[in-house]
Amino acid sequence: MNAPDRFELFVIPEGRRKVEMEVDTKIPNAATFKIEREDHTLANMLRAQLLKDPRVLFAGYKVPHPLEHNFLIKVQTVPGTAPGQALKDATSELISEINTLKNKFDMDVIRHRTFEDAKATQPAMGAYDAAEASRQPGAGLDPNRPGMDLDF
Questions:
Q1: Alpha-carbon distance 46 to 19, whole Å?
Q2: Residues pairing with 87 in the sheet
Q3: Cβ atoms < 10 Å from Cβ of 32
Q4: pTM for the whole thing?
């Protein structure tokens, strides 16, 4: 088969660095970064994070070849800000956002499991209990459906 070995997707070859920077001599405050063993997933997230920064004038990426596991990201910043610093800041902010998302997901999983455990331990309703419950506020709502969890 012509497919490359799986380890080539994540093992950085000897003599290469994870991130290499080449300063652009034609555009002021610009540099191109080559990031090894990553793909569109990280490239697009980094590009989007860079564009949120008001110090960044341009951020774009390309994957030179589909069988090469790297991408090039070009960053141009305002005078007084180094493109390397902007990329470093964007990476830190992206890691922070992903950690926040992970924490929210973990809390929702815990909340869901707690709800399911509580539902499983409740005794089944008899005919009298169901009739009594229908007179309570909120009657007519599906008792098996969890309440809405909205953040305003």
A1: 13
A2: none
A3: 18
A4: 0.72
